[in-house]
Specification:
Layout lengths: L1 E12 L3 H9 L12 E12 L3 E6 L5 H8 L7 E6 L2 E2 L5 H11 E4 L11 H5 L1 H5 L4 H14 L15 H14 L4 E5 L7 H18 L2 E6 L2 H7 L2 E6 L2 E6 L1 H6 L4 H6 L5 H4 L2 H4 L6 E3 L4 H11 L3 E5 L5 E6 H9 L16 E2 L9 H6 L4 E4 L5 E5 L1 H9 L14 H4 L8 H9 L16 H19 L1
Parallel strand pairs: 3-8, 3-9, 6-7, 7-8, 11-12, 14-15
Antiparallel strand pairs: 1-2, 1-4, 4-5, 9-10, 12-13, 15-16
Helix pairs in contact: 6-7, 14-15, 14-20
The protein binds adenosine-5'-triphosphate and magnesium ion (MG).
Adenosine-5'-triphosphate binds next to strand 2 and helix 2.
Length: about 450
Amino acid sequence: MAVVRASHVYKVFGRHEREVVKRLKAGEDRKDLAELGTAAVIDASFEVAEGEIFVVMGLSGSGKSTLIRMINGLWDVSDGSMEIVGKDISKMSGSQLRQVRRDHISMVFQHFALLPHRTVRENAAYGLELQDVGPRERLERADAWLDTVGLSGWGDKYPGQLSGGMQQRVGLARALAAETDILLMDEAFSALDPLIRREMQDQLVELQSKLNKTIVFITHDLNEAMYLGDHIAVMRDGRIAQIGDAEDILTRPADDYVANFVQDVDRTRVLTASSIMQDTHAVVTHSAGPRYAMRLFERERVTGLFVVDRTRHLLGTVSDRAVVRAAREGVDTLTDITETEGILTVKPDTPLSELFAPSAGARVPLAVVDDDNRLLGIVPRVALLDSMAHLSPETGELPAVSQLPATVEPQDEVTDESRAAEAEAPDAKPGIAASVHGETEDEAQESASASATSDDQKGA
Ligand SMILES: Nc1ncnc2c1ncn2[C@@H]1O[C@H](COP(=O)(O)OP(=O)(O)OP(=O)(O)O)[C@@H](O)[C@H]1O
Ligand SMILES: [Mg+2]
């Protein structure tokens, strides 16, 4: 169920609210109506699902704060409806609205909004005080939430004794202590310096995985939006230009405005293993025989296969050499020759930025697995390098574009060096990317005998 649902919401400031809404609906431009009123939000429709982080992003003045203030009922909508947990707050009386706010909504502000003469603990308990929770219980609960945000032991200090990052943690603890299901955060991390800000983002993601709040998070920082948002609404001049997940917005921008807006995003933090992973058919079940495996080697033109069980749980890899040997020796399953060392697995949601290091050292493509270790796909190093090639050189945080080849040897391509390396390392783990086709004498011989054996089999 949508926890927040906005349908065709308008907010116009000024005395001619109705008139402006009417003319906007008739297709007039907000600029031409500026004399009559400021159209801060125009025809905004969106849903925020339970447990998601919904980010609203846009330039200054695009209407973000106005939008969030209509979610908590601080502003009435000029037109349209705003539903919170299924109830239309635009039609509520003051006391009904206060009730909904109290039960469902807490807010974290950009400038912390802490009370300077109260201790950290009392600040964290403040929301509970407003909810008429007794002093002992509210201070205990405040302490527990201070622990959760990493501030154990700081309860007796005053806000002024804390750094900005710590003060915002108090703000977060205060919002969490109210134990509402919806958390509204308006530029909550924008006043923090970049390192602390990044830490807070990580902490929010971690907390969210435990608490499963429904969060509406406002920011004008693209990287923050992309990092945090399950869904992102991009606002422009009061309208929502696009709603989508980070990948949609990056790879399928709705218009030139959004495309321009996102061009400087650090894609390696946004795109994940799942966005570049490839299907692989170089997969064999462990109960299969070496002869079947040899046919796969031939068909897929690889020198290694991933070995899985019947339900695709990843068990290891086998090399063509080991398989050829096993076939000669009459072994009938791959179980004993499956190598379990040296496969690096990543999750589908691992950001590209975290794939470079493991990929650089790995001799096989990274295996993308789900939480049960089932093989979903592979990321060959060439795919990772290829994704880099499509990055704009302006992506600030990635000066590594030109440095990468030094740390990442293109082992998935056949070069003289890689052939030499293969020749020197006869027991090397299999290289599984399709382009790998080792042609050292030794290997040529084995692959010839592999073809011969499988031809025999076809004939049989
Ligand atoms: N109380 C108000 N009265 C009149 N106009 C207002 C009021 N609040 C906001 N506006 C106008 O509405 C438009 C949207 O403002 P809003 O504060 O929602 O933008 P924002 O996206 O939050 O910007 P920022 O990133 O600077 O916080 C602006 O043109 C602003 O001047
Ligand atoms: Mg604002």
